[in-house]
Specification:
This protein is mainly alpha-helical. The chain has one domain. The protein has a two-stranded antiparallel sheet. Helix 1 packs antiparallel against helix 2 and helix 3 packs across helix 4.
């Protein structure tokens, strides 16, 4: 299950996903537990100020160490090699006046702007400097 609600006032997205398995196959149950442990290890290893590509490399190293693969692709990221997530627009910088106007025009223009403002944690991340810093609290 996946959802991407947007706060109507701030236009901050709240992406979340869940996997439900109601079966009894121990191999599937163990795999899902392993994935949860991998996510926890990645989150515990991230440090404030890390470069997005550093976070991605760290995540991929942990995934590989656990003998699983990450085959995520994104229709909004041209080179979606090794994506392990993305930033949340407006959580680390304010919307500009021009962007706020676009966000208020219609949902179609708002969703396109929000989508374009995400910075992916991928092997293809080319941004440098402060714009390429992970916001970790």
């Amino acid at each position: 299950m996946y959802a991407s609600p947007v706060d109507r006032e701030t236009r901050i997205i709240g992406d979340f996903g869940m996997t439900f398995y109601l079966g009894k196959d121990p191999a599937i149950i163990n795999h899902l537990k392993k994935c949860l442990d991998i996510n926890r290890e990645i989150f515990a290893s991230i440090k404030a100020g890390m470069n997005l590509s550093e976070v991605q490399r760290l995540g991929m190293k942990i995934i590989s160490k656990n003998r699983v693969s990450n085959d995520v692709v994104s229709v909004t990221e041209p080179d979606s090699t090794g994506i392990i997530g993305h930033t949340i627009p407006a959580s680390y910088e304010e919307w500009t006046k021009e962007e706020m106007k676009i966000l208020q025009e219609s949902w179609t223009t708002a969703k396109d702007l929000i989508s374009s403002k995400r910075k992916f944690l991928s092997g293809a991340e080319k941004r440098n400097g402060d714009n390429n810093r992970a916001e970790v609290n």
